[in-house]
Each structure stands twice: as structure tokens, then as C-alpha cells.
Fold:
Amino acid sequence: MDPPTDPPTDPHDEWQDVTQVELALPTHHAPLNSSLLASAPPVLPRETPLITPNRWVDHFRSSMTDPPNVDDLLLTRRQRTLSRLMPCMKTSPSPMYKSHLQVAVHMAQTAFNNDDPTHFQTLQTIYKQLTGDLVDCPRFGSHWEEIGFQGNDPATDLRGVGCLGLLQPLAMLMNPEMYALIRKIHALSRDERQDFPFMVLSINITRIAFDALRKQTIKKYILRDVDQFFDRFNYYFASLLFHFFHVWRTEQKTIKDSGYVLKDLEQLSLKKSDFLLERLEQHLTTYSKSDIQKAKANMDRRTGIATR
Structure:
């Protein structure tokens, strides 16, 4: 399939139709691109420490020299038209909410950077947490298909939502309470009959979650504790991913059903966010405290800091 196109730069239109990446299983391993290999970053140590989602967000917060204008991204086309005709009716988010949203938009607008070792470290963390590997993997290669990218270079799939597409699976993989769940979802993605490209799915769900944020569907939910903006936004993503997993597993869906399942999920995300959040909360109570503690200890050891 053709790679997704780069997102437009006009902030008024940018998130009206964020690129959806088609869920399609690779039929063969694409040949390595020699020009990409030549520009690959230096080889990292064999066991690079895992990166936390907070550090990934802070990396973008500190590099944001020109914050994006997010006021219009919070409004529908009709609301934007009314605000232009009657400026006195224009609304703006709270300063804290706006600041966090600017970082989220900045992440979504930022392409994967081969020259930034933090970007590769984040990819490495996702790969190692999903596969259980301890040592680092090459920047390019067919091994990325093991976690559901479509070819030798994960950056190609990230064009739709930029580096925000790495934050949300990273947040689940580095959350001891969600680690077992996301590993289950990845295992289902490798099932002989019900397989699907996990990371491509994750990118599509990030697109759905971000659209809900832009349309203010989950604004009240996040404003309940705006200091935890990204924790709450990532939790919402997890609720979407869990619902997809539940439907896919219990209704015996296969790759031919993916478009319909994603479309239904998108509609549900805009109408029943509370239902999605409550269902995830209930499911997480089924995991034992001992398994959660084991996952936390392992993450703490491999990051060098306490995760939670």
C-alpha cells in the first residue's frame, strides 16, 4: 500500500482529517534502503535504558521554541465561523490546558528524527517492552514487523500523527498496571487467525484519541485534573485500545473487519467516552497486585528511576 501522506501545515485544517493508516498485513519483507542505512544514527549500547513517557513528553516540551496556535484546533468549523463573525463569543482553554495541548500538537507535528537519539531510544523501549527482548535492535530491518509496523522503517508509519504516535503505546508499556493488558493485545495481534499490525493499529487509535481531544469530547474529563493532562489523555487512548481488543477477541474479528471496527470505535469515542473509561477501569482490577509489582520492579531497574 502507499505510505500515508505528510500532514498539512495549516492549523485550521490540520486535524480535520488526520491520516488513517490502513491495517494491512505485510506480504513480504521490504529490502533495506541503503541510503537510509548510510544515514542511520550511531549504534547504541547493547542494552539502552528504557525511557519513560514523562521524559518523552519533557523532551518535546523543552524543544518547543514556537508553540503552535491551538485555539482554533479546539473548535469545530461552525464554532470557528461564529468566532470570526462575533469575536466576543470566542472561547479559549485554561492556560494550563492550553500549554499541555500545545505540547501534544507539537509532538503530533514532529516527524521522527534519526539524528535525535531520544527518538530511537523511544522506539527501542516500545520494541523491547512488547517483545521481552533486553538488548537493542537495529534502527532498520524486518524485525519492526514483529510489533506491527509495515516495513523496515517505523518512521514511515508515523507520518499520520508524528511522534505522538509513540507516546501512547509507550505510556501503556511503562505503566505497571497496564503492562499485562498491552502484552495481551500484542499477543492477539500475532495470532494465526486474528492477526493485525499492532503498531499501525495503535497509530490509528492515537488519531481517534487526538480527534476526540480536538473536538472537546474529553476536555471535561481531562480538566478534572489538568496537571495530569498526558496521563489522562493516555488513559483515554488505553480505553480505546482495550475496547478494540475486546471486540476483536470476543467477536472473532479478522483483518478484513478492521475498517468497520475502527469506524465503530471512532463513533463511540465521540459519544460514549465515559463508558469506554469505566470499562477499562473495571478490567484493570482483574490483574493481580503481585504481577503489577513485578512489572514495576522490572521497569524501575531498567530505567534507573521509579516509574510510579
About this structure: Residues 229-250 form the longest helix (22 residues).
